[in-house]
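hey so i finally got around to running the thing on that chain from the lab meeting. sorry it took forever, my laptop kept dying and i had to restart like 3 times. anyway pasting the input first so we r on the same page abt which one it is
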Amino acid sequence: MPFSPPIHRRFEQPEPMDELRSLAISLEEEDRADLGGYIAVVLQKLANMNELFLGERGRKKSVFHSATMPSVAVAEFVERVANNIVCPNLCLMLTLVYMDRLALPSSELHLYVTPLTAHRLFTASLIIAIKFIAEKPPSVFNDM
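ok and heres what got predicted. didnt touch it at all, straight out
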């Protein structure tokens, strides 16, 4: 019996904006308090892990370093911001993506989320996310 190659069907790939819209819709259905809590836990654990991992190496100063330990814990800060800011939930999730990209080994910035940097990095990332998502022309996100 001769070999016959498998038949490849052409599947339509979803457009990137369609994926973004569906993600945004599913995130908007998520309760804001729950979403803020999830993000808060992730950042708190990341800051604590980096503090243990980096030790004194993590003490390199950057513009994001606080001179003293903030009086508000990272998790509490994130939850407060998430519950009080007016922006799409997608913006909150995008902050995690931006903060994750900062910590990539290929990043030349060498910024790490630690208890001394988490508050400022989160705030800066959130501002960038809001500018990227919420300040688009209305026609881009009409279907949401």
